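#random but structural
TW: two for the price of one
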Amino acid sequence: MSDLTSIKDEAPAVRNEVITDCMLLLCKQKKPEKAVQAAELLAEWATLSNDVYNAACAYSLCIPLVESKETREQYAKRAVQLLRQAAAKGFNEVEKYRQDSDLDALRQHPDFNNFLAEVEKK
């Protein structure tokens, strides 16, 4: 994702907003490989828990865009890992986890349901 790495030195809030917008556009354009590359940059450069949450959402949005069951599983596992990181950084909005349509592809995944149960206990 060399195009986005050029903005690394921008102010974090601006940089992360640009990456988030690009990530979502790539999902809408059905370009999951590029969207998850952007998600990884966002997760790496995250300054806020919301940034990590947005990266997780991108992975979830990409699940239905890939044909390979193996890739869908990889995306689901990475999405849940990122959700765990977001929660550890303070993103504990249980209702958002329950209702955000960006996470719909994860709803039946056991890792997501375990994560949700853990967050609900806190």
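TW: number two ↓
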Amino acid sequence: MLTETERRILEHLSKVEMIDDLQLSSSLELPRSTVMSTIESLKLKGLVNIEEIVKSYYEVTEEGERRLREGMPEDRLLKMGRVEIPKAKERLGADFELAVGWAKKKGWIRVENGVIVPTVNTPMSSEILELKKIKADPDYAPDPDIVKTLQLRNLVRRKVVKRLIIRITSRGIKALEDSKSFNYVGNLTRELVISLRNSGGSVVLKEKNVEAEPPELTLGRKHFFREFLNEVRETLLEMGFNEVYSGYVEMEFYNFDMLFQPQDHPAREIHDSFSVEGFGEIRDKELLDRVAKVHKDKWKYEWEPGVARRLMLRSQTTATTSRILSTKPLPPARYFTIGKVFRPDSLDATHLLEFHQLDGLVLESDYNFRRLLGTLKEIFKRLGVAEVRFKPAYFPFTEPSVEVYGFIPQLGWVEMAGAGLLRPEVVQPTGVEGRAGAWGIGLDRLAMLKYGLSDIRDLYSNRVDFLRKMRVEL
């Protein structure tokens, strides 16, 4: 049984010996994509034969079109007759060098004492003659030597096209004849039923393959790691935190000095942080002086404001916490930030040069260490880590400080975060009243544990086969 489109194509093929796909598309006023899919279907049924031919031809370029309009540079030069070089340059402009070069190559001119002297009569370049023939007849086959010159001068380009030559088979002719005896339809509609009832006519329904699978739809979705970061963000927002942001390029003042890390601390060396050329500007001079005083009084060294103004790629999102403190927020307040940090490292299955951190800050007048631990337990519980333990630790900007460990069934106890109450040396220079708790969580490692990954680079994978296996649980 034939569809309406198949019947139209076979009827047209029965009237011609052969035809290519473009001619068939034009003759029937059908999209080429429709013609291609239909003739493939007819080929599978044995109703048509298809032969692929490859055809090459030469096409005049935009440069070639310009030369057809204006003439070749050497032709224009020769038409001037005996002419001084400055005058020829003025009249030919940018084409002067081309004109002289090709005219000399062709033996048309000689140069004597700054004068261009023609040595032949005024011919027309063979390039122009060939361009006219190529433009007039796409099937014209130019001389190979001339083609090399035309291509060298960017006057023509070679085009290769594939054409499908289609012929109807004897089986196709019979199928076309048989189809005239029946009125085939693809779908039975309400309108068709009414029409047949009124006319008393009949139709033959096209066969349906009820076992055919529907087409597979590959639906796009967000990257699983991006979904995980969004899940963490929603968790903190649900707990009453406000999200804050800061840039990747930071001053050492916010990344180190405000966090009570001395200027000779090893973390500031090039093997532990990325420096950026240039300096920033610290506008709050009172804050600058108070931070300087803390460093001088506590660490006993001469603090340098120039070092604090140096630019770097932030090595910790705690730099964002520093910036929040510098605005002197009023308690009670809760803030968090999620973003990339950058540290020099050897790239392997467990280390990247950039990774994500979650930093949190709680400001309350009576905030204490016990409540900080309770906040961390709640965060990890909502992120799917029900069991957590705390171990005493040291960080330059918190006291007391803890490391947070979470229990992962496949791995046991795994370090998740560092946290503590901000030291007075961090809070007091900002003028913030009340007590502050802060923490930093490595989100890349947490995501690896959540999804059972052994290679951190998989978090940034763009392999479709891998991404299709990842299921995001929200």
